[in-house]
């Protein structure tokens, strides 16, 4: 074979050629390995830290953990707002083998409506497959039990617990506590402005009203963080680090829930409100507005039907009448005006006049009438307060003039926010020349001045403002800002806050306090006193002042409804008072819309409040025994 | 002979059963690394290990069987192998089974079969047989014929499309021509023609997904969650492994499933993450050892045919390693080439060990006559 011969001949040369080529190949292999190795060196050594960081960024996620909201107690330690677990049925779509079959079975087991299924499908589209989607939000305990017994049949379905707010006293404290509800877009915007977004990263609800809103910062607490390792699908594999959230402050209120309940019963059937303050600190013992509503409805998202009903109700349950209802104070402010007159020197305790039931000014056609058509006869300041003589105060208003009245009443808090720890507050109106000019572009007329003497003529005040003013009076000038929150629980100990003050009222003559307070004593305790009947036989001695305001309903924008006209035209019944007379512990203000006379309707409610407050007290002296306690000066 | 003196006596036992001890050692080391890494990459699944062990067993049996066949038999069978292989490739294009967007399998009723795997051996055998018929270095005409022999199956496979395999087959043929002593001038011309071929490839042969791979390779960060995801996560895995690695089973990129195709094509990233640059250098040392041994066998082979075939098989093996590591570490575009003997997977493993079986046959079966 010729080929073979040639092959044999060239064998060595071929072998050498091959060896050279193999050697070159070896060198090329070496070069390429060097390229590989230098690239790996670059990745693993030069840029190691960079890739280490990115690797950790891949696997480590920081999840916020919501803090438990602080609890709210009343002054006696009764729990007013608590956190209760609610159970929701959640489905992780990825872990469910046959979603439709599972849903059908669950529907049968737990009576889930087609609507809920439709909602579920809607939410399902928005979520990633491995994230839980809620099928039913508030499971009843029986439903939890039924599901738990059958859980083994449903992989990927579980019952999850979350804490939500619950108000065990329901509508008793609505206007005090307010409520929490789901954080909405507006809340988020506010949180962003306050740079608090991070702190609310895991929080579900936020205070919307009342104490829950005002003390949100205390109650919320600090968000915690859970550092978790996740896989590429975002599922948590394990927890690496946990910095627990700091729970919110447990808050103690000045409110006495039993007193609050007593007031609710007393106001049954009325549109009105009651405020009870502790004049020694400004503490709000009770603050109730009727009608009320159940705040728990809002926590879980109120149905639009229920919300409409509340919103459209003629009785306006959503309004806090105690702090937002602006009523003409009527005769309840007569003691304050008397004090202004005495201290300005326009009257003395002995100044007296004859009241024939009408008041007229020279050259003015208008006649101002007393509530008692035939008048009260000879009255001095004490009697004028006790019998609530209008004529005396028309004259006093005339003598003082609007400027001095405004100047004297402003320190009592009229026309300004009290500073109570609620955002739902109105400032009322203490009229003045400047106010009228600004409001109506009209000058102040003398005809405007006269009715200010009996707490009317543009003068409006909230029941809380009235209570505050009477509190200042009972304190002889000392001014505490009304506070609902009493303090907080720190390390199982109640830390009571210092009362908040405003500058006290200092009179030219301190004895003027006595004149006015004595007249208020007389209103309740003396023969012709306007509130005598209502307070007969109390175990404590109180002082007060009635008021009956001409129609002025809080809803100024209300539509005219014929069938309600009669009721709407009726007077508002007002009462302010305090007890015990010699060492005041409680101030009560009552305002009832369209209820009629204050002495007849409002005073008995104030008495019921005071009776309840003193019911267990043995240190109170019988009224009869101290009939002559204060100077019995009938002039 | 000097050479026989150097070969230790204990090898003669292995020699009798036609096993090359050095190669076997290197291959076993690689398989060991592979099993350890598959265990980590596959989420500690014993099932995977068992299946890989069965595959390794089958492949080893094939290797040992092929090692018993005398090299002359391969030489004689080359042309039949090649012709049958090409016919089957045509068959694949005509009646093949589609899987993973490519038409690679021939369904023979009993089992599915990938004819391109046969070509990995048939092409170098055919080219070596053809070139070895003439004096070395080959003439230009022979080189041309050699290129035609390479191109036909390469293009058929590229059409399937299977870029990785066609690349491996083309290189296995070209290696034969190179080792045969193809002139440098000609190499230059062909390299020039080859670069001219690139646009033709791009516009006529490459599928959209392959083009996407190349685009992604140029700039993986342009699409970090889409096409670039593989390569970015792979580089993060390698880079975060550092010098010493995160430790076995401690690689977060792989254990937490950020890394795609962990136990198959991207197993090198898992290995790099858990064993670091030190481990990688060790792995490369094993590969270098096997390649050196292979080239040594080629140089010691007696016939031109066996020299060329052994050299080509060895260098193609290196191409596997280089292309896989290159794509996983981001210096080459992603083409589906496994890390030889380490990646989990069947067909290519059998072909690879079949190649080593032929190498062993060449290494251990020598005709005394030619010396």
Architecture blueprint of SSEs:
The complex is a heterodimer of chains A (635) and B (371).
Chain A: H1 2-9, H2 11-46, H3 48-59, E1 60-65, E2 72-73, E3 79-91, H4 99-110, H5 114-126, E4 133-136, H6 141-150, E5 157-166, H7 174-177, E6 180-182, H8 185-193, E7 205-207, H9 210-214, H10 216-220, E8 221-222, E9 224-230, E10 236-243, E11 246-247, E12 250-253, H11 257-266, E13 272-278, E14 283-290, H12 296-299, H13 304-312, H14 321-324, H15 334-344, E15 352-355, E16 358-360, E17 367-369, E18 377-380, H16 381-386, H17 390-409, H18 433-440, H19 446-452, H20 463-474, E19 479-480, E20 485-490, E21 493-496, E22 501-502, H21 511-525, E23 543-549, H22 565-569, E24 572-579, E25 586-592, H23 598-614
Parallel strand pairs in A: 2-12
Antiparallel strand pairs in A: 1-9, 2-3, 3-4, 3-5, 6-7, 8-11, 9-10, 12-20, 13-14, 13-25, 15-18, 16-17, 19-22, 20-21, 23-24, 24-25
Helix pairs in contact in A: 11-23, 15-17, 15-21, 17-19
Chain B: H1 2-6, H2 11-16, H3 21-41, H4 46-68, H5 71-95, E1 97-99, E2 102-107, E3 112-113, H6 115-132, H7 140-158, H8 163-179, H9 184-205, H10 208-218, H11 229-241, H12 252-255, H13 267-300, H14 304-328, H15 347-364
Helix pairs in contact in B: 3-4, 3-13, 4-15, 5-6, 5-7, 6-7, 6-8, 6-14, 6-15, 7-8, 8-14, 11-13, 13-14, 13-15, 14-15
Organism (chain A): Fluctibacter halophilus
Family (chain A): Belongs to the transpeptidase family. MrdA subfamily.
Keywords (chain A): Carboxypeptidase, Cell inner membrane, Cell membrane, Cell shape, Cell wall biogenesis/degradation, Hydrolase, Membrane, Metal-binding, Peptidoglycan synthesis, Protease, Transmembrane, Transmembrane helix, Zinc
């Amino acid at each position: 074979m010729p080929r073979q011969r040639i092959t044999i001949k060239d064998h060595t040369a071929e072998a050498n050629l091959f060896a050279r080529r193999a050697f070159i190949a070896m060198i090329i292999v070496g070069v390429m390995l060097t390229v590989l190795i230098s690239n790996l060196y670059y990745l693993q050594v030069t840029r190691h830290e960079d890739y280490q960081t990115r690797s950790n960024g891949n696997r480590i996620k920081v999840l916020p953990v919501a803090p438990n909201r602080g609890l709210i107690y009343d002054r006696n330690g009764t729990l007013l707002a608590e956190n209760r677990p609610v159970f929701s049925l959640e489905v992780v779509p990825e872990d469910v083998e046959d979603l439709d079959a599972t849903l059908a079975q669950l529907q049968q087991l737990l009576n889930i409506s087609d609507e809920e299924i439709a909602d579920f499908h809607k939410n399902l589209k928005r979520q990633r497959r491995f994230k839980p989607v809620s099928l039913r939000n508030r499971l009843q305990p029986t439903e939890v039990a039924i599901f738990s017994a059958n859980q083994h049949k449903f992989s990927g379905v579980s019952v999850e617990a979350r804490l939500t707010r619950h108000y065990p006293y329901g509508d008793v404290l609505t206007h005090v506590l307010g409520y929490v509800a789901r954080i909405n877009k507006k809340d988020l915007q506010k949180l962003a402005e306050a740079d608090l977004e991070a702190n609310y990263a895991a929080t579900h609800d936020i205070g919307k009203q009342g104490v829950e809103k005002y003390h949100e910062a205390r109650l919320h607490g600090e968000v915690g963080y859970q550092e978790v390792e996740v896989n590429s699908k975002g599922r948590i594999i394990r927890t690496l680090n946990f910095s627990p959230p700091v729970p919110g402050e447990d808050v103690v209120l000045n409110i006495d829930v039993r007193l609050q309940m007593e007031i609710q019963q007393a106001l049954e059937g009325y549109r009105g409100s009651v405020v009870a303050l502790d004049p020694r600190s400004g503490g709000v013992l009770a603050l109730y507005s009727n009608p009320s509503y159940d705040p728990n409805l809002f926590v879980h998202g109120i149905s639009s039907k229920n919300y409409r009903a509340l919103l459209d109700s003629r009785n306006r349950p959503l309004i806090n009448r105690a702090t937002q209802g602006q009523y003409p104070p009527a005769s309840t402010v007569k003691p304050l005006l008397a004090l202004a007159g005495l201290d300005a020197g326009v009257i003395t305790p002995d100044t007296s006049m004859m009241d024939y039931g009408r008041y007229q000014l020279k050259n003015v056609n208008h006649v101002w009438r007393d509530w008692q058509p035939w008048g009260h006869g000879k009255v001095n300041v004490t009697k004028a307060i006790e019998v609530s003589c209008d004529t005396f105060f028309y004259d006093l208003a005339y003598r003082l003039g609007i400027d001095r009245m405004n100047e004297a009443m402003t320190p009592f808090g009229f026309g300004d926010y009290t500073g109570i720890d609620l955002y739902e507050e109105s400032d009322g109106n203490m009229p003045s020349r400047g106010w009228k000019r600004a409001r109506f572009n009209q000058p102040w007329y003398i005809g405007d001045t006269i009715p200010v003497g009996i707490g009317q003529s543009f003068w409006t005040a909230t029941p809380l403002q009235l209570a505050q003013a009477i509190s200042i009076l009972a304190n002889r000038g000392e001014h505490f800002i009304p506070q609902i929150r009493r303090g907080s629980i720190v390390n199982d100990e109640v830390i009571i806050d210092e009362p908040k003050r405003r500058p006290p009222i200092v009179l030219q003559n301190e004895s003027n306090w006595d004149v006015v307070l004595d007249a208020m004593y007389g209103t309740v305790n003396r023969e012709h006193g306007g509130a005598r009947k209502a307070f007969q036989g109390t175990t404590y001695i109180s002082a007060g002042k009635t008021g009956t305001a001409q129609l002025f309903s809080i809803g100024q924008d209300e539509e005219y409804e014929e069938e309600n006209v009669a009721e709407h035209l009726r007077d508002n019944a007002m009462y302010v008072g305090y007890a015990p007379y010699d060492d005041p512990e409680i101030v009560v203000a009552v305002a009832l819309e369209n209820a009629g006379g204050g002495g007849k309707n409002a005073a008995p409610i104030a008495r019921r409040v005071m009776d309840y407050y003193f019911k267990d007290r043995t240190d109170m002296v019988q009224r009869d025994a101290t009939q002559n306690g204060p100077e019995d000066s009938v002039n | 002979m000097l050479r026989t003196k150097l070969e230790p006596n204990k090898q003669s036992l292995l020699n009798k059963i036609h096993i090359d001890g050095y190669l076997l050692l290197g291959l076993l080391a690689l398989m060991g690394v592979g099993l350890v890494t598959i265990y980590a990459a596959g989420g500690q699944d014993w099932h995977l290990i068992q299946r890989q062990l069965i595959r390794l067993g089958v492949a080893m049996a094939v290797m040992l069987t092929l090692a018993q066949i005398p090299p002359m038999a391969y030489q004689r069978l080359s042309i039949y192998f090649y012709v049958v292989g090409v016919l089957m490739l045509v068959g694949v294009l005509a009646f093949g089974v589609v899987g993973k967007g490519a038409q690679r399998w021939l369904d023979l009723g009993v089992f599915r079969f990938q004819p391109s795997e046969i070509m990995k051996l048939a092409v170098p055998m055919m080219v070596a047989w053809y070139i070895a018929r003439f004096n070395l270095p080959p003439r230009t005409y022979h080189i041309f014929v050699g290129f035609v022999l390479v191109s036909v199956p390469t293009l058929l496979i590229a059409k399937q499309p299977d870029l990785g395999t066609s690349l491996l087959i083309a290189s296995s043929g070209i290696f034969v021509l190179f080792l045969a002593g193809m002139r440098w001038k000609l190499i230059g011309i062909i390299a020039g023609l080859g670069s001219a071929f690139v646009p033709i490839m791009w516009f006529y042969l490459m599928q959209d997904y392959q083009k996407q791979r190349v685009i992604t390779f140029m700039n993986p960060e342009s699409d970090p969650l889409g096409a670039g995801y593989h390569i970015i996560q792979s580089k993060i895995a390698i880079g975060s492994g550092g010098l010493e690695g995160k430790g076995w089973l401690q690689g977060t990129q792989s254990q937490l499933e950020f890394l795609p195709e962990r136990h198959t094509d991207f197993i090198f990233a898992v290995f790099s993450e858990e064993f670091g640059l030190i481990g990688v250098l060790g792995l490369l040392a094993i590969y270098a050892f096997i390649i050196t041994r292979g080239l040594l066998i080629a140089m010691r082979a007696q016939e031109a045919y066996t020299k060329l075939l052994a050299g080509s098989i060895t260098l193609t093996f290196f191409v596997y390693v280089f292309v896989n590591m290159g794509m996983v570490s981001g210096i080459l575009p992603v083409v589906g080439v496994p890390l030889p003997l380490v990646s989990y997977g069947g067909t290519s493993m059998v072909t690879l060990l079949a190649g080593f079986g032929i190498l062993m046959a060449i290494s251990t079966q020598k005709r005394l006559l030619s010396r």
